[in-house]
């Protein structure tokens, strides 16, 4: 049954307006990043008159962008790996085994998503400072402390999502592997994990994006040596001037890893977000 022509045209108009709404800020960023600072600071013109790639060169010297890029890559990568590994074991245990407190654990994991992240800022700050004073382990201002902080956000969602995905994987696969002589861990990595790759990829993308663009905790829990990109971009705004063209250029550069990863893993991401909902 064909859709009415009025519905087809309405859909086209709506999608066109939505696409323009999404792409308009991107065009402004790209055009502003290719202008001299004088043109960006003056009246806005849709078509740049003086094109230059100088902002893409100056962004590396105005602030230590390479150092911030490395810090973000280390922190986001480590938080992603830790989140995926821990979530796989925790979700598999909840999905496949019965133990005392299982329901309480599941509800507790889910309930942590009900609180805004800013509520954990002061408690984590005090915990890190007290641990440093008592043991000498410098969590505050370090990459390790920031990684632990990001795990508090990504782990609950990752565990809850993988529980639903592991539930959709037939238990017969585990039992067949056990009958063939595999132990529980070998059955997990040889049978269940390969079948759950889309869900694991979705969790990894979520954890990486959460850590890559986080600002609040990174601005408090880091120092000059461990500052990440999300905070380091503020360095283009000084007391004397704001380098708008460099801010736009740097924002586009730091978005490349996330956009490229999303495009490469889009097929797995969509499958992972939807497969766990249908059993």
From TrEMBL:
GO terms for cellular component: plasma membrane. It is a multi-pass membrane protein. Keywords: Cell membrane, Membrane, Transmembrane, Transmembrane helix, Transport. It is found in: Cell membrane. InterPro entries: BP-dep_ABC_trans_perm, MetI-like, MetI-like_sf. CDD domains: TM_PBP2. Residues 69-265 form the ABC transmembrane type-1 domain. The keyword Signal does not apply. The chain crosses the membrane at residues 12-30, 68-92, 104-127, 147-166, 187-209, 243-265. It holds the Pfam family BPD_transp_1. One of its GO terms (biological process) is transmembrane transport. PANTHER family: INNER MEMBRANE ABC TRANSPORTER PERMEASE PROTEIN YCJP, MALTOSE TRANSPORT SYSTEM PERMEASE-RELATED. Belongs to the binding-protein-dependent transport system permease family. This is Carbohydrate ABC transporter permease. It comes from Streptomyces coelicoflavus. The lineage of its organism: Bacteria, Bacillati, Actinomycetota, Actinomycetes, Kitasatosporales.
């Amino acid at each position: 049954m064909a859709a009415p022509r009025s519905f087809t045209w309405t859909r086209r108009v709506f999608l066109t307006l939505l696409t323009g709404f999404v792409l308009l800020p991107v065009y402004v960023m790209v055009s502003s990043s290719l202008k001299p600072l004088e043109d960006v600071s003056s009246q806005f013109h849709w078509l740049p008159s003086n094109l230059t790639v100088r902002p893409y060169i100056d962004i590396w010297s105005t602030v230590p962008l390479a150092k911030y890029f490395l810090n973000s890559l280390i922190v986001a990568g480590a938080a992603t790996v830790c989140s995926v590994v821990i979530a796989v074991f925790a979700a598999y245990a909840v999905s496949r085994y019965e133990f005392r407190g299982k329901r309480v654990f599941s509800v507790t994991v889910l309930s942590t998503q009900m609180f805004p992240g800013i509520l954990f800022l002061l408690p984590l700050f005090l915990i890190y400072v007290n641990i440093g004073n008592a043991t000498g382990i410098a969590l505050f201002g370090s990459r390790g402390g920031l990684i632990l902080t990001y795990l508090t956000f990504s782990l609950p969602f990752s565990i809850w999502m993988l529980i639903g995905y592991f539930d959709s994987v037939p238990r017969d696969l585990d039992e067949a592997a056990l009958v063939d002589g595999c132990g529980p861990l070998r059955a997990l990595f040889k049978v269940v994990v390969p079948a759950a790759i889309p869900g694991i990829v979705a969790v990894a993308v979520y954890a990486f994006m959460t850590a890559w663009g986080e600002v609040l905790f990174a601005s408090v829990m880091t120092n000059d040596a461990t500052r990440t990109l999300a905070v380091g971009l503020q360095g283009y705004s000084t007391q004397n001037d704001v380098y708008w063209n460099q801010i736009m250029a740097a924002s586009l550069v730091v978005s490349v890893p996330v956009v490229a990863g999303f495009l490469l893993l889009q097929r797995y991401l969509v499958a992972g977000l939807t497969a766990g909902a249908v059993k």
